[in-house]
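[job 4471] stage=fold_predict status=RUNNING
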Amino acid sequence: MIDSLKRIKEAEKKADERIEESKKESRAMLSKSESDAKDIINKASESAQKKAVDMMNKACSEAQAEAEKIIQDGLQGSKAVKDKAEQHVEAAAKVIVSQITGEA
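[job 4471] inference complete, writing C-alpha cells
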C-alpha cells in the first residue's frame, strides 16, 4: 500500500511538472506570438508609409509636369503676342507721328 501511495505521489509530482512545463511553453508561445504580431504591424506600417510617400512623389511629379506644360503654353502665347506686336510697331509709329505732325 505504501508503495502504491509512493507511485501515486510520484505520478502527481510528474503531472505537476508537466503542467508547469506546459505553462512555460504556453507563455513562450504567447510571447513569440505577440512579438510576431508586433513585427507584422511594424512591417505593415512601414509598407503603408512607403506607399504614401510613393503616391505623394508621383502626384508631385504629375503636378510638376502639368505646371511645366502650362508654363510652356504661356511662354508660347506671350511670344506669339510679342511677335504680332512687333509686326505692328512700324505702322503704330507712323500713326503716332502723323497724329503729332497733323498729317492724316
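[job 4471] summary: The CA atoms of residues 49 and 66 lie 26 Å apart.
[job 4471] exit 0
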